[in-house]
Amino acid sequence: MEKFKAFLKRKDIEISAKRYGIDALGAMAQGLFCSLLIGTIINTIGSQFGIGILTAPVATVAGADYTVGGLASAMSGPAMAVAIGYALHCPPLVLFSLITVGFASNALGGAGGPLAVLFVAIIASEVGKAISKETKIDILVTPLVTIGVGVALSAWWAPALGKAAMKVGDIIMWATDLQPFLMGILVSLVVGIALTLPISSAAICAALGLTGLAGGAALAGCCAQMIGFAVMSFPENKWGGLISQGIGTSMLQMGNIVKNPRIWIAPCVTSMITGPVATCIFKLKMNGAAVSSGMGTCGFVGQIGVYTGWLNDIAAGSRSSVTAFDWIGLLFISFVLPAVICPCINILLKKIGWVREGDLKLS
Question: Which of 74, 139, 225, 304 has the fewest beta carbons closer than 10 A?
Fold first, then answer.
C-alpha cells in the first residue's frame, strides 16, 4: 500500500473531491467557454452586424458547412478534455492525446456530452499519467493507452452518462415549468451558490443542459450573487471591486464568507427573490447555450445567451420579435433588482450586528 501511495504521489495523481470536483470541473467550464460559448458569440455578432467574414462558411467537413464560430463550437469536446487534463497536470503526450478522447466522449454523449467528457477525461488523464514515461517507447505507449482507454470508456459510458445528464436536466426544467415559483426559488438559489463556491455553475448547467425557464432562474441566481456582492461591497472595494465581482466572479468573496458566513445571506435571499420573479413575472428563458445559464454577468455572457436564445426562437418561428418587456425583464433580473435588493438586505444585517464594516473587503 505504501508503494502504491508513493507511486500516486510521484505521478501527481490525487484522488480527491477538490481535484476532480473543483479543479477539473472549473477547467472544463473554461474549455467550454473558449469553444462553444465563444463560437456562439462570434456567430451572434456576425449575424446581427452583418459581418460577412463571420457568417460565411470557411470550411466544409463531411458535407457540412462551418463558419468561424461553428468551428469553435465544434471543438467543444476536445477543448473541455484538454482543459481538464491541464487542471490535472497531465504531461504533454497525455494532454495532446485528450483531444481525441474529448471529441469521442462529447460526440457519443450527445446533448449530455459535457458530463461524459468530465468523467471520461478524468479517468483517461489519470491512466495516461500513470503510464507516462514508464517505458522506453513512451511516445507510442502513452498516446495509445490514453486514447485507447478514453475511446473505450466513451463507447461504454458516454451514451448512458449523456442520457442521465439530460434526464436530470429535463426533470429540473419540467418541474420549473410545472411549479415556476417554487422551482424558481430552488434553482436560482442552488446555481447561485454554486457560482460563488469554488466549483463551476457554468459546467453544471452545461452538463445538465439547463435551458428554458430553469435556465432563466439559474441566470437570475448567478446575477444575484455577482451584482449583489459587487454593489453591496462597493463602499469597501470601490470601482475595482465592482468590476471584478460584477463582470468577473463573486468567488472573490469566498475568503470573506469563510470568515463570516452571514455576509452570504443577502445575495442568497436576493436570488430567492429574483428567481421566481424571472420565472413567474418576466417568463425569462435561456434558450441559448446551456452553459450561459450558469455564467451570470461574467463578461455579460448570460445576457448574450438570452439574446441569442431570442434570435433562435425567432428563427424557429416560436417568437415573432423581441419586445420591450423582454428587455426590461432581462435588465431587471440581471442588474437592477440585485443592485437594489441585496444592499438593502445587507443594511438590515449590519443593523442587527451580523455583518460589520470590513467584512466584505477584498484583499
Answer: 139
Print the domain residue range for 63.
2-162
Q: What pLDDT, in 10s, does the model give residues 276-323?
A: 999 999 999 999 888 899 999 988 989 999 999 999 899 888 888 999
Nine-digit cell at 13?
A: 495523481
CA 119, chain centre distance (Å): 16
Cα 350 from chain centroid (whole Å):
33
Beta 64-66 vs 59-61: how paired, if at all?
antiparallel
Q: Verify that 32 and 132 share a domain, yes or no.
A: yes
Cell 455578432 appears where?
Answer: 45
> What grid cell was written down for 105?
466522449
Total-model pTM: 0.83
Same domain, 213 and 269: yes
| Distance separating alpha carbons of residues 295 and 265, to the nearest angstrom | 21
Alpha-helix runs per DSSP H in the chain: 2-10, 17, 25-32, 38-49, 52-55, 68-74, 76-87, 92-108, 113-131, 138-178, 180-196, 201-208, 212-232, 234-246, 254-259, 265-276, 301-316, 324-331, 337-351
| Cα–Cα dist 70/269, whole Å | 39
Q: Does residue 292 fall inside a structural domain?
A: yes
Which position has the grid cell 438559489? 189
